[in-house]
Design brief:
The complex is a heterotrimer of chains A (361), B (708) and C (188). Chain B is α/β, with parallel strands linked by helices. Chain B contains 24 helices and 19 strands. Helices cover 34% and strands 7% of the residues of chain C. Classes of the chains: A mainly alpha (361), B alpha/beta (708), C mainly alpha (188). Chains in contact: A-B, A-C, B-C.
């Protein structure tokens, strides 16, 4: 007859960290589906590669650190990181890109800082930036959307490109990137940026086939997919509204101001919203609680800063997209933001308390 | 302020930060009336059932008490008396497990009811409006009422505030899941509650009375609204259900929009809050002269066949109530006193119901599968911030948790740890299932203890410095005195009088003593000590020294035969009773030797007979010396004998029957010698103490040798 | 000639500058003199003030002074690991384990005099560093528990061994939320 001693509270919401992680992974599915539809199997293959690498890396480090392996290995955080890396890579990048990226994210960015909850940077984005500056060629070899491609790209072709660099028919990555008209393709963001340096206006860039009817063939739908997933996460309260809201608002405001000042040299607000990794960053990366700010006020500042940085880097930076860089910069700023946005504790520094004897009517 | 009331009348309330909505589970008990349970076989009344200090006992074991009779009493405002919940006999006053999360024991009164339930004389008050405020407060104080919501703050302290009171807030929120005690009390006894509120109104004369109640108790709200319909002053405020609305600070914020500043009582804002059950108790105390001896307790949980609210006498063991409600769980018990959010597990079902017990929860294992009960599911904090979103005090639970784990007390102070009300909302939502509140509690108790230690260290430092100063002062004073005395002595010696010569010889004797000490031999000690001047106390000290030496030597040279012969020598010397001091020394030496031998006798039983012989010899010397004029000697000897006998007695336990005989005979002798010299009690005491100490030492030695 | 003059001017200028700055510095050092908390004082504040002398010094202050002058930091037995860590932090030195000669047991205790055994010898009173023992010659002594630092110094001098060190009892007030050590009582 044993008595059971426990500390209060004795009940619990029964939420689990791993459940939140799983939910986030599910929410990324619409975006991934759009990616698959417009760019083929490449990203799915990279996601699988990254997941396998991440799990192996996590297992190795956990056993070296003598931690409890099963609960931490399958808490979903490593898988989520791998999924995010796989999503953000160019579809026809070589296989070792995702392997190195996932291993770097898990071993260096996450575990060497102390594991889940202790990493100051978002592992996926840190890995992405590392890959981008280490392997710029492979990391910028974006293929055109399938409908614009000169060559067909089946699943086996993709697999072959990723593994050997050539399709089954022997076409190289460079050839794959060819447009039907014979140009090498770039992403819409890249196109606008390059054209601006060539003296073309943004309006002229919009004529480019890669843009399509709206903001970029494929990209707009991928972003819409991630937006959908993000709204689902908000509805499920798996992520907080503050960061995506302030990030998107900030990006919107910055690009609107720039657009109004000079329509020729600046893309529209919606172009910014629905291109590159904008929605992925807003709902899946900036909302990473570990490396973000904590309080509502802090999150608003954090998101606004990220939006501002994305705009600045997209407009003035050397790289076409900026989400990864701005996320890392904001990660650095997060502890400072937290420090200065501590909420006022109940009963401390009260200013609006009515003096007690005002009521002598 | 008028606007506050207007706002409340319009049904607009403020809110507090955060809060959660745990499953309420109130349906288990909310549809059944409050049941009266029979008197248990035994009532256990902890002397302290509230925040403050316990009052002083007024009864003793064996006393017959009547129902409502006062059992403890004190004039201290923070001491609340307790009363007999029924008539019966006080069977014990001893430590027992009290209703506290620590499961520690404190002093409790045990009452065995006689079943008659006979009241002490009561004085029913027909119109409390006739009584003065002081009389009312006196009645509340004498009835032992302490806040019945959970904290147990003495009510008379709260109501005797001198502040100008704007709001009297009656807390009927009952925001914890499962608990329906207040709900049912309101439904069944709203007229009495109204009386209680009116009494408080008379005492405090607040501008407004607000009753805060959550909207999940429609029947109770209706009852309250009906009861208070004619009173313009009272506003029944129906609040949205959210945990922890019933927290004092939170309820004040909701109703008045004010925050209670940290470290300040609400009364300084002109606000007094009382629990609704306390109002009922006040009415009972003032009108019916019924002290606080019973309360409504929600006995709930799915491990019970018949969960129900009960009228429980204070002191009723929890197990009794559970049995009455059909407790099913037999193997693994989890009993919680209080609600699931802030209650604490009980280590035994013998814990009594006290003044602050509003709920006893007996959940099934499935029902409350708190990850905090096993503690194994805790994973790292991912800084999701849900905890700070729900914290009603707007703290940063995740940062507190890191600092608490790192024992960073400075940072914890910066993060306002002590503003945590331990409501458990943060731990409830934590997806990493970190027992946050538990960490805070540990940190809080550590900080409190550290503060105590700091105060104590500072205090010790001051005392140490003061002592050093005092010693320095004394030293100077002593030196001056010595100098003066030495000067005087010199003058006298030089004068060549007889007194001077005596002193000279005394000095010489002292020198000899010092030498003897250095030599460290029994013989030298023997020869030196008799030279001491004729001062009884000094000789005793000398005897002690000799004893110590004897011990040492005995430890060095320990052939039994040698010791025996020495003892014999000594005893032969003591036979000449001319010199008392000598006899004393001899006795001491004999004792030491005897001890030595006794130790040996642990291994060889034959030696015991020798010891016995020696003891007898020592005693015979006692007898002889006793005849002399001086008692002192005999007393010491008696003590010696006693010590020896004790030793033997303790050996007896280990040894064989032959030893028993000898010790028995010794005991007889002891009693004789003791009886023979009762002259000087003090001296005898000293001797006894010395002997005791010796015996103790030997006992511990024996223990050691036994264990090895 | 001009060379000499320019050299002289240089020397003069530099010299006067040195003088002026020296004066400013001197003035500043007097004016902004900081009454720094001497190291020994800071160390003393870290020590537990039991005044037990187990470190070999007659009290906490002397030991603090000794540490400030280079004595080992690991001799405070009542303070234990925590105190060593704090001292190490203050001095910026490595944490050392507690000196082996000292008992590591630093559970807080108070002395207690078994009153019926006390013979009133005042020896313990003389030993007590904080004057926490009341009594006089041939009168039974008693310890003011609130003042006792648990230093142990009174135990040895007692000729009748009537002083014992009692661990401070756990009460609901000083309980440290150690849920794992709750005695589960079952009377059945």
């Amino acid at each position: 007859m044993a008595f059971w001693i426990a500390s209060s509270p004795h009940n619990h919401m029964q939420s689990e960290t791993s459940a939140i992680m799983r939910l986030v992974i599910y929410a990324a599915l619409p975006g991934i589906l759009a990616q698959w539809y417009f760019f083929g199997w490449g990203n799915l293959i990279h996601i699988s590669l990254a997941i396998i690498t991440a799990l192996v890396a996590e297992f190795t480090v956990l056993s070296l650190r003598e931690k409890k392996i099963t609960p931490q290995l399958f808490d979903g955080s490593a898988i989520l990181t791998a999924v995010l890396i796989g999503i953000s890579l160019p579809a026809i990048a070589p296989w070792w890109i995702s392997v190195i990226g996932a291993a770097f994210a898990i071993i260096i960015v996450k575990q060497l800082y102390g594991g889940l909850g202790h990493n100051p940077f978002n592992p996926a984005m840190a890995a992405y930036v590392m890959l981008l500056i280490s392997f710029p060629l492979q990391m910028t070899s974006w293929q055109p959307p399938l409908e614009l491609m000169a060559l067909p790209l089946s699943f086996l072709d993709t697999l072959s490109v990723i593994i050997s660099g050539f399709t089954i028919d022997g076409y190289s990555v460079e050839q794959l990137r060819m447009h039907v008209d014979g140009f090498t393709m770039a992403t819409p963001l890249d196109t606008v940026k390059t054209n601006l340096t060539l003296g073309l206006t943004v309006n002229e860039s919009m004529e480019n086939p890669v843009i399509g009817n709206n903001f970029g063939i494929g990209w707009e739908w991928i972003n819409a997919g991630f937006l959908l997933g993000g709204l689902f996460l908000l509805a499920k309260k798996a992520i907080n509204w503050a960061t995506p809201f302030s990030f998107l608002t900030s990006l919107f405001v910055c690009s609107l101001v720039a657009f109004l000042l000079s329509q020729d040299s600046n893309a529209s607000t919606m172009f910014h919203w629905f291109n590159g990794a904008c929605m992925l960053g807003a709902f899946f990366i900036l909302t990473d609680p570990v490396s973000g700010a904590t309080s509502i006020k802090g999150r608003l500042i954090f998101g606004a800063l990220a939006g501002f940085l994305v705009f600045i880097i997209r407009k003035y930076g050397g790289y076409p997209d900026a989400v990864a860089f701005s996320v890392l910069l904001c990660n650095m700023a997060a502890p400072l933001i937290d420090q200065y946005t501590r909420p006022r504790t109940y009963g401390h520094n009260i200013t609006n308390n009515a003096p007690k004897n005002t009521g002598n009517e | 302020m008028a606007s506050v009331i207007e706002r409340i009348k319009r049904g607009h309330f403020g809110t507090f930060h955060g809060g959660i909505h745990p499953p309420q589970q109130k349906f288990l008990t909310s549809d059944k009336p409050i049941r009266a349970v029979s008197i248990p076989e035994q009532l256990i009344l902890p002397l302290q059932q509230h925040i403050g200090i316990p009052a002083e006992l007024q009864v003793k074991v064996g006393d017959k008490v009547l129902k409502g009779q006062i059992l403890t009493h004190s004039v201290h405002p923070m001491a609340v008396p307790i009363h007999a919940p029924t008539s019966g006999t006080i069977t014990a006053i001893k430590n027992a497990v009290i209703a506290h999360p620590s499961g520690l024991s404190e002093l409790c009164l045990f009452i065995t009811p006689d079943g008659e339930d006979k009241w002490r004389p009561r004085h029913i008050c027909t119109d409390f409006n006739q009584l003065s405020n002081n009389q009312l407060i006196e009645k509340i104080s004498a009835s032992g009422i302490a806040g019945m919501g959970g904290a147990g703050f003495p009510t008379q302290v709260k109501v005797s505030t001198r502040e100008d009171i704007q709001y009297l807030i009656i807390n009927a929120a009952e925001c914890e899941p499962y608990i329906t005690a207040d709900d049912l009390l309101i439904r069944e006894h709203s007229p009495s509650i109204l009386d209680g509120i009116n009494i408080l109104d008379n005492i405090l004369s607040p501008k407004h009375i607000l009753i805060g109640i959550e909207d999940n108790k429609p029947e109770a709200i209706k009852a309250l609204q009906q009861a208070t319909a004619e009173n313009e002053k009272i506003n029944v405020c129906v609040l949205p259900t959210k945990y922890p609305t019933g927290g004092e600070k939170q309820l004040i914020q909701i109703l008045t929009g004010q925050e209670v500043p940290a470290g300040v009582l609400p009364s300084s804002l002109g606000i007094v809050m009382q629990n609704i059950a306390t109002c009922f108790a006040i009415a009972d105390a003032v009108i019916n002269d019924i002290p606080l001896i019973k309360r409504v307790v929600t006995v709930s949980g799915q491990a019970l066949e018949k969960p129900q609210n009960v009228w429980s006498l204070l002191g009723t063991p929890v197990g009794f109530l559970l049995a009455q409600c059909g407790y099913l769980n037999k193997d693994k018990k989890h009993i919680i006193m209080g609600g699931p959010m802030m209650g604490y597990s009980l280590p035994t079902d013998q814990v009594p119901v006290v003044k602050t017990t509003n709920c006893i929860l007996a959940p099934t294992e499935k029902e409350i599968s708190s990850p905090y009960s096993t503690g194994s599911k805790e994973v790292e904090c991912i800084r999701c911030g849900q905890c700070s979103d729900v914290c009603p005090s707007q703290l940063l639970p995740q940062e507190l948790q890191w600092s608490a784990k790192a024992k960073d007390q400075q940072q914890l102070a910066i993060l306002n740890l002590f503003d945590c009300i331990e409501c458990g909302a943060c731990a409830y939502v934590c997806p990493s299932q970190i027992p946050l509140v538990h960490y805070y509690r540990i940190a809080k108790s550590e900080i409190r203890q550290q503060k105590q230690l700091d105060i104590k260290a500072e205090h010790a430092k001051v005392r140490f410095e003061a002592r050093k100063e005092r010693l320095a002062r004394d030293k100077i004073a002593r030196e001056e005195k010595h100098k003066a005395a030495a000067d005087a002595r010199k003058a006298r010696m030089n004068s060549g009088s007889t007194a001077g010569n005596n002193e000279k010889s005394a000095v010489a004797a002292a020198l000899a003593r010092v030498r003897a000490k250095k030599a460290g031999q029994v013989e030298s000690a023997k020869s030196a000590v008799p030279a001491t001047p004729e001062n009884g106390q000094k000789s005793q000290v000398a005897a002690a020294i000799a004893r110590a030496k004897a011990k040492k030597i005995a430890a060095k040279t320990n052939p039994a035969t040698e010791a025996t012969s020495t003892v014999n020598n000594v005893t032969s010397k003591t036979e000449s009773p001319t010199d008392d001091k000598k006899a004393k020394i001899a006795a001491a030496v004999a004792k030491a030797k005897a001890k030595k031998l006794a130790e040996k006798s642990l291994t060889s039983i034959e030696n015991i007979s020798i010891v016995k012989k020696e003891v007898n010899e020592a005693l015979s010397s006692d007898a002889e010396t006793k005849k002399s004029a001086d008692d002192k000697k005999t007393k010491i000897a008696a003590a010696v004998a006693k010590a020896k006998a004790k030793k033997l007695a303790s050996q007896k336990e280990k040894s064989i029957t032959s030893v028993e005989n000898s010790s028995a005979s010794n005991k007889v002798i002891i009693t004789e010698t003791e009886a023979k010299n009762p002259a000087d009690v003090k001296k005898a005491k000293i001797a006894a103490a010395v002997a005791k100490a010796k015996a103790k030492k030997i006992a511990s030695q024996q223990e050691k040798s036994e264990s090895t | 000639m001009s060379v000499i003059i320019s050299t002289l001017i240089a020397i003069l200028v530099l010299g006067s500058m040195a003088l002026v700055f020296g004066a400013i510095l001197g003035f500043a050092s007097v004016k902004f003199h900081v009454e720094g908390d001497p190291l020994a004082e800071q160390l003393d504040a870290l020590l537990p003030q039991t005044q037990c002398g187990q470190c070999g010094y007659p009290g906490c202050k002397p030991y603090a002074e000794a540490v400030a002058n280079g004595e080992a930091i690991n001799k405070c037995a009542p303070g234990g690991e925590d105190t060593i860590k704090k001292i190490a932090d203050l001095l910026g030195v490595e944490v050392q384990p507690l000196d082996e000669n000292h008992e590591a047991d630093n559970t807080p205790k108070v002395a207690f005099i078994i009153e019926e055994d006390c013979i009133g010898c005042t020896k313990c009173i003389q030993a007590c560093p904080v004057d926490a023992i009341l009594g006089t010659t041939k009168q039974m002594h008693t310890i003011i528990a609130d003042e006792c630092t648990g230093c142990d110094l009174c135990v040895d001098p007692c000729p009748v061994d009537c002083i014992v060190m009692i661990p401070i009892a756990q009460t609901p007030q000083n309980w440290q939320w150690d849920l794992n050590n709750i005695p589960v009582v079952q009377l059945d």
